[in-house]
Write a structure and sequence with these properties.
The protein is mostly beta strands. It has two domains: 2-89, Elongation Factor Tu (Ef-tu), domain 3 (Beta Barrel), CATH 2.40.30.60; 100-165, Roll (SH3 type barrels), CATH 2.30.30.240. It contains two helices and 13 strands. It has a seven-stranded antiparallel β-sheet with strand order 4-3-7-1-2-6-5. A hairpin with a 4-residue loop joins strand 12 and strand 13.
Amino acid sequence: MVVLGRITAPYGIKGWLKLWAYGDEPARWKEMPRIWLAPTTDDPAQWREWSLADLRPHGAAWIMKLAGIEDRTAAESLRGHYVGAPRDFLPATAEGEYYWADLIGLQVVDGEGRPLGKVVDLLETGAHDVLVVREETGAHAQERLIPFVSAWVLDVRPEAGFVRVAWERDW
């Protein structure tokens, strides 16, 4: 399951939900036949399928309406739930575009091919996304924050399992 966002709160009294979307094109979710919700991402058995009735931007966030959620009380029961979809249901990405889930776990190497760690998370900063790269050496772990922009990210190859960056080990 690819996590796409999280429900932050009910919106209004007619069952709408405020949504914090991970990624920059949640409007494309309307292309999917269904979405899934779960209270946690730890247990695959907790994901439940829903029909998306409507989805629209609202300020910096989004609001969505699910079929069957008709009032604030029902919407409140979904506060904090994650929104996701199986990889096969997601719209295809364009050349040079990636779902965050495609990047998590990739090995990060410098321009010379030396390992810097693995992508463990991404941060959305407003200006651009940032790779959170963790290198673990024995009992010690170091994190690097690398802007996910072409000036620093030279090559992304999920199928080969790596991201090449213009970054030095001691930065």
